[in-house]
Amino acid sequence: MTMKASEYFCCEACFEHAWLRGLAKEKSESQGRCFYCDTVSALTPIDAFRTGFTNLLGDYIPVEGANGGRDSYFPSVPMVEAVQRDWKVFSNRCLPERIEYFLPSLFNGDRDSPARDFQAPVVPFHRNAMSTAFGKWFQFWMIDPTAFSKRIDPDEPLDIDTIATLPNQQAQHLKYFVRTLSPAQQLWRARGDYAGTSEWDCQPLPRHQMGHNPKCPASRLNRSGEAVLYAAEAEKTAIAEIRPGRGFICTTCELTTKRPLEVLDLASPLAELNPFTHEHLSWHLDLQRVARNVSAHIAQPISRGEDSVVYNKTQYLAKLVRTMKLDGIRFSSSLDTPSGVNLALFDPSAVEYSNARLVTITNTQISYEIKQPSSLNK
Ligand SMILES: [Zn+2]
Asked: From start to end of 37-138, where are the E strands?
């Protein structure tokens, strides 16, 4: 005999989010028919979820409170739709017309609940607060230098120690994504060249020619004259980065790091946050948005060996990271997507070289779309 379905009980099957499923299981009591998903199951009093949802709902504000009155990217929707869109909370076994009852029942009688009118459209607070970490990177995001008055000046000295200056704040944001790499990491480098005169007479380049370019030309993460050793975490990535053609013979070699390295990790900066338990949720979501976007800008593929608009930004970031006294930057490869990872090291002597060998490029893939001519001087 089962009791009548009540909106004050739910079950494990109601949820898609793993943490909610675990909690539902842990706190489940007697069997019964679930009001929300209409299955007979071990029921959990919804009170068990109040603390978690209070944490989650803390990152949503009524759209009138948002900076600009709406989110420029996400439509403003009622709370249940917003959390479902952002966090995949409920499973698709829930009856859509019943989900509407969940939040009002959960916070029934709680006058301090994060939103008493659950029909009111909301937006994520971390994207719409008046002052966000993301907003402090405004100049960095702007790619069209004519549309905004000031380009980042790479020659201006960076003061990251004076509290509340922009570089100081940016350095504080990036600190969350610093990671220590233990010694003896294996890395690769490649050069589109070999010793000898033809493919009938070829040897790998000698090791001393596999280091950084001694002329130190400007590149993605260094200005002209600054030594940076660009290496990749896989041989294929190292080869892709030199953009060889089919049939090219290249030299690759292995590198091994000699000491622990503290790097800004933009290749995997996003730890999975549990929105139901994470303290200071909005702040951390804001920082993750910064990291995700910086990462995309750094990994952006470019047409020539150099692109002044992109380099303006990426070199600024490298300078910030050098000023933070880190050893380098770990970032996604733009030429070996989606999983290739590069490591740019500010100290080229932090690695040892071994196992140089020759490779022949057997295949490169091309796909393309039409691009309209464009000009910055419109
Ligand atoms: Zn259920």
From this structure: 40-45, 60-62, 77-78, 121-124
pLDDT tens-digit map of 257-281: 999 999 999 998 778 899 999 999 9
Distance 161 CA to ligand 1 centre (A): 53
What is the tens place of the pLDDT at every residue in 304-361?
A: 767 777 888 888 899 999 999 999 999 999 889 889 999 999 999 999 999 999 999 9
Please tell me the pTM assigned to this model.
0.85
C-alpha span between 92 and 7 (Å, rounded): 17
Contacts of 97 (CB under 8 A, 6+ apart): none
Domain total for the chain? Answer: 2
- Cα of 273 vs centre of ligand 1, distance in Å, is 24
Ligand 1 centre distance from Cα of residue 14 (Å): 4
**Does 201 map to a domain?**
yes
Percent of the chain with pLDDT over 90: 65
List, in order, residues 6 or more apart from 248 with CB less than 8 Å away.
192, 360, 361
Nearest to 264 by CA among 222, 232, 294, 302: 294
- Whether 187 and 121 map to the same domain: the answer is no
Q: List, as ranges, residues with CB under 5 A of the ion ligand 1.
A: 11, 13-14, 34, 36-37
Domain that holds residue 62: 9-128
